[in-house]
Amino acid sequence: MSEQTNVQERLTSVEDRMARLENLLVSINEKLEQTPQTDVAESENTEKFQQWVTDYVSMRLQQLVPETCDHPADAAAQDGPFLDNTNVPCTEEVVHRVKRIPIPFVREMVVQRVAENARSAQIERVDIEFFEQAATF
Predict the structure, then answer these.
(1) pLDDT number for residue 38
(2) 4 exposed, middle or buried (CB, 10 Å; 0-12, 13-18, 19+)?
(3) Pick from 98, 104, 108, 85: which is nearest to 130 by CA?
């Protein structure tokens, strides 16, 4: 008899758990059905906001593009490479040397210093010798 009692108790326990689980699922289903439906006004506001963000990002990107990105096609072919984010022409060796600088903000500082020195010295094209001389701080 004890086995029947034990089985009966376990069966009752499982049925209680199943009933609680069923109640929980019903309550979850009710909450999901109660979620507010998006109306037309909200979707219009969302579209307006998305358009505003798109316009804003577009405007900021246009402001951040350096003026050196807009070289005429023939000037780029004639003048060769330029120091990063500047309009100072340089040799391929200088471009390669600049790319070897591993830390971005240091690379930017070196390029700006070389560009300033090239402008003040009125250098037409930065070669490797001038770069090494001008890049020292």
Answers:
(1) 61
(2) exposed
(3) 98
Please check the confidence at residue 6 and state whether its pLDDT lies above 80: yes
* Inter-CA distances, 112 with 19, 83, 122, 124, Å: 73, 9, 15, 16
CA atoms within 13 A on the CB side of 63: 6
Residue identified by tokens 């023939």 is 74
Neighbours of 127 (CB within 10 A): 13
Per DSSP, the three-state class of 126 is: strand
What pLDDT, on a 0 to 100 scale, did the predictor assign at position 76?
Answer: 45
For residues 79, 83, 85 and 86, what is the CA-based torsion angle, rounded to 10 degrees? -60
pLDDT tens-digit readout, 99-118: 998 888 899 999 999 999 99
In Å, what is the CA distance from 70 to each residue of 64, 65, 90, 108? 13, 9, 17, 20
Query: In angstroms, what CA-CA distances link 31 with 17, 27, 87, 136?
Result: 21, 6, 62, 68
Residue ranges covered by each domain of the chain:
1-34, 70-134
Residue 91 DSSP class? -
